[in-house]
């Protein structure tokens, strides 16, 4: 720190390097997608902060990629509202404020309610397909045991993706995938404040049980209650 209590240029560079060191590429459909996913996971994990400027040359060096796929990744994230490009100021991470979180949750609840209707029909006519939900639940359980909350978040996302797939509604699944990165960032922020984190596996198993037993009219509050539990944690 300098005399004014501000970080020196060297300290700022070191802090930026420390943050970048926590970003890792994940398997995805293409290199730009891998980069975009890594940036989103970095935001969810707190390695990248709201308002932080993303410097292309640093990211390209960190991921060992050229700036072409990196720019494609940033354009995709910009289109999804995760980063914003400011004139003469580069690209910055958009703040995930309460209004944005509530809007994402509202859209997610609407999409997953539609998905739940189709998924329930699939599971009732083809109960063997329920086994596909077991893999993300087991991954979640193992991540809880390790205290790996980033792993819990990804398993949670995979669980709900399976329900969308089971709905056999391609439009819903496509739209849901469009907000999945926002959801992961919300998970990263909200899971840390949830009361009784060890209950998350039980909550998902109960959600499946309640989903299969529910009448169609009961699906909207059931889905919304599950999704919004992190926004309105139990006391």
Walk me through this protein's architecture.
The chain is mainly alpha-helical and 235 residues long. It folds into 2 domains: 9-93, Arc Repressor Mutant, subunit A (Orthogonal Bundle); 98-230, GntR ligand-binding domain-like (Four Helix Bundle (Hemerythrin (Met), subunit A), Up-down Bundle), CATH 1.20.120.530. The protein has 10 helices and 3 strands; from the N terminus they run ααβααββαααααα. The protein has helices at residues 9-20, 31-45, 56-63, 67-79, 98-125, 131-146, 149-166, 170-190, 200-213, 219-227, and strands at 53-54, 83-86, 90-93. It has a 3-stranded antiparallel β-sheet with strand order 1-3-2. Helix 6 packs antiparallel against helix 7 (149-166). It is elongated. The protein starts with 8 loop residues before the first helix and ends in an 8-residue tail after the last helix. The mean pLDDT is 86.
> Percent of residues in helical segments?
55-70%
Supply the CATH superfamily name of the largest domain. Answer: GntR ligand-binding domain-like
- Low-confidence runs of at least 5 consecutive residues: none
**Overall CATH class of the largest domain:** Mainly Alpha
- Rg, rounded, reads 19 Å
Q: Largest sheet, order of strands side by side? A: 1-3-2
Broad structural category: mainly alpha
Estimated share of beta-strand residues: under 5%
The third-level CATH topology of the largest domain is Four Helix Bundle (Hemerythrin (Met), subunit A)
């Amino acid at each position: 720190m300098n005399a004014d209590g501000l970080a020196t240029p060297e300290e700022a560079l070191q802090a930026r390097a420390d943050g970048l060191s926590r970003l890792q590429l994940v398997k995805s459909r293409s290199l730009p997608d891998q980069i975009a996913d890594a940036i989103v996971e970095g935001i969810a994990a707190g390695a990248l902060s709201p308002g932080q400027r993303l410097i292309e040359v640093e990211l390209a060096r960190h991921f060992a990629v050229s700036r072409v796929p990196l720019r494609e990744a940033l354009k995709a994230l910009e289109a999804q509202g995760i980063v914003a490009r400011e004139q003469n100021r580069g690209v910055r991470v958009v703040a995930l404020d309460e209004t944005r979180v509530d809007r994402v949750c509202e859209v997610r609840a609407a999409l997953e309610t539609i998905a739940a209707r189709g998924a329930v029909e699939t599971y009732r006519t083809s109960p063997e397909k329920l086994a596909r939900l077991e893999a993300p639940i087991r991954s979640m359980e193992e991540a809880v045991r390790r205290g790996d909350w980033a792993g819990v978040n990804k398993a949670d996302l995979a669980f709900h993706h399976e329900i969308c797939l089971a709905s056999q509604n391609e439009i819903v699944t496509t739209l849901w995938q469009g907000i999945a990165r926002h959801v992961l960032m919300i998970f990263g922020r909200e899971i840390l404040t949830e009361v009784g984190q060890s209950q998350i596996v039980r909550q998902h198993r109960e959600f499946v049980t309640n989903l299969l037993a529910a009448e169609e009219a009961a699906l909207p509050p059931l889905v919304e209650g599950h999704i919004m539990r992190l926004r309105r944690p139990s006391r």
